[in-house]
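Morning!

This is the sequence you dropped in the shared folder:
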Amino acid sequence: MLQLRLVVRGAVQGVGFRWFARETAQRLGVAGWVRNREDGSVEIAVSGEDDRVEQFAAAMERGPGHASVAGVSRDPLGDGEALARPFEIRR
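The structure's back. Tokens below.
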């Protein structure tokens, strides 16, 4: 089970990125959440089978059609953090 925290930078707010993340997560069957950050980036916590999480992370590196992803940082999540199912958009 792989758990990651992703921070997506670029033109990623106001382009449907959170919706794209939720839809991608639901299609892949991973748990977690996505939210906009005040600095203009998007933060994501994701958990699931290793290959599914890697597929999810690769999709976030591309983003939806109107986004322009400049970079994605990835860090492991702590073992104690349980993530929600279904994947949710946080405000």
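Headline: Residues 2-89 form a domain with the Alpha-Beta Plaits fold (CATH 3.30.70.100).

More detail when I'm at my desk.
O.
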